Amino acid sequence: MPENQLNKKQDLINYLIELARKNNISAYELGKVSSISSSSVNKIFSGENKTPKQKTLEILLNDLEKSIAGTTGDIEVRKEYTTEARRQLNIVAEKISPYPDFDSLKIDDKLNIIHKKIELISNALGNIILNQEEDLEKLLKKHLTKN
């Protein structure tokens, strides 16, 4: 592989590591939300795997960007929203624990369980969005009164 390509790949690895560090996302956490295993992410981040595939790095970058709730476009989102989002999603995850006998349930029961899970997730995300919208409205009003 040409040295130029190696440098670009290493730059991408460095960028991934820096982006994850700035957003307090560990290799393990990234692996949990990615199709790339946590151990593979850890090997890339630690330098043990010095030549990961370009596709692997692109997948990790995409998954890392998706997992970062700190910015949306050019609008900075307050840190407490990301903390609150994680807290609410953890509550949702606890409430929707797996059903060991799910396969043996009747289809109506399965659909009810799935519907409840979707409703819990929807409510948690809805609350976060409402809080962000309220702050954006306040920010807009403040900006308009200054001008």
Features:
147 residues; 6 helices; single chain; 434 Repressor (Amino-terminal Domain); mainly alpha; two-stranded antiparallel ribbon; 73% helix
What do you see in this structure?
It is a single chain. By secondary structure, the chain is an all-alpha fold. It has two domains: 1-68, 434 Repressor (Amino-terminal Domain), CATH 1.10.260; 75-147. Helices cover 73% and strands 3% of the residues. The chain is built from six helices and two strands. It has a two-stranded antiparallel ribbon with strand order 1-2. A hairpin with a 2-residue loop joins strand 1 (71-72) and strand 2 (75-76). Helix 5 runs antiparallel to helix 6. The termini are far apart.
Strands, total number: 2
Low-confidence stretches: 70-77
Estimated share of beta-strand residues: under 5%
Order of helices and strands: HHHHEEHH
Q: Helical percent range?
A: over 70%
The mean pLDDT is 76
Radius of gyration: 20 Å
Please work out how many helical segments DSSP would assign. Answer: 6
Largest beta-sheet details: 2 strands, antiparallel
- For the biggest β-sheet, the strand order reads 1-2
CA-CA gap between termini: 56 Å
Structural class, by secondary structure, is: mainly alpha
Indicate how many domains the architecture comprises. 2
Shape: flat
